[in-house]
Amino acid sequence: MTTTATAAYWEPLWAGGRRYRQLDRPENRLMDEHLGPGRGRPALDIGCGDGALARHLHHELGYRTTGIDISPSAVALAAAHDEGPTPGPAWRCVDITTSDLTDLPEPAYAVITCRLVYRWMEDKTAFLNRVRHLLVPGGTFWVVTEIAGRREDTDPLRGLGIRPAEVETLTSGWSAVQAADLDVLRCYALHP
Ligand SMILES: C[S@@+](CC[C@H](N)C(=O)[O-])C[C@H]1O[C@@H](n2cnc3c(N)ncnc32)[C@H](O)[C@@H]1O
Q1: Cα Rg of the chain (Å, integer)
Q2: Whose CA is nearest to atom 3 of ligand 1?
Q3: How many A from CA of 108 to the centre of ligand 1?
Q4: How far is 12 from 69, CA to CA, in rounded Å?
Q5: Is 181 in the pocket of ligand 1 (CB under 6 A)?
Q6: How many Å lie between the centroid of ligand 1 and the Cα of residue 191?
Q7: CB 93 near ligand 1, within 6 Å
Q8: d(CA 103, CA 118)
């Protein structure tokens, strides 16, 4: 069986030209408000896809950013954007669920982001435990996810939303949880 947090699932999609919802100004504005200026601190974008969010963290907010994805085609696409004079984010092909995280460029991150990714993690508790190990005290975990029930019953994409039990798993055990809604999306800023 093909599971949804594996390269076997994602690589053919990226290699075949599949793309996902683009970042827009309202989402970027929310992210900027919650994360603040990076001032060279390390940030990690998990499931970076084509790298748009990681580039925003790196070039606009000033984080020293690493983007990781399980799909080699996604990582290649992300790296292909780095042509300007300023060095871009570091890109790595990493499975967040199984890879040795000590191989990442930094031992811990001030900001970890994860956009349209949590939905696909099969063992969400294990995934969140790995994220917690990578966050510095006082750091921020920024999660963007669809919420169930926001699309019409007839919408073929209605299964993309996470259900209340998955929201509970995501938001439990943090010292502070902030949430902001954007149409079908909810953005969470989670603090250890
Ligand atoms: C819906 S896409 C979102 C991509 C990007 N974050 C965006 O917002 O456009 C989900 C991404 O998660 C990545 N992914 C899925 N499972 C993963 C895993 N176990 N480790 C790392 N990345 C993973 C996929 O390859 C894919 O790029």
Answers
A1: 16
A2: 116
A3: 20
A4: 14
A5: no
A6: 22
A7: no
A8: 22
Q: What is the rounded distance in angstroms from the CA atom of residue 152 to the CA atom of residue 59?
A: 37
The pLDDT tens digits of the residues spanning 106-136 come to 999 999 999 999 999 999 999 999 999 999 9
**Of residues 24, 48, 176, the one with CA closest to residue 116:** 48
**Cα separations in angstroms, 37 against 3, 23, 57:** 37, 18, 9
CATH architecture of 7-14+24-191: 3-Layer(aba) Sandwich (3.40)
- Provide the strand spans (E) within the chain: 42-46, 64-69, 90-93, 109-115, 135-146, 176-182, 185-191
pTM: 0.97
CA-CA distance, 111 to 134, in Å (whole number)?
A: 9
Closest ligand 1 atom to residue 5 Cα is: 16
Amino acid at 137: P
Average pLDDT over residues 150-155: 90
Closest CA to 88 of 60, 69, 116: 60
Q: Is 4 in the pocket of ligand 1 (CB under 6 A)?
A: no
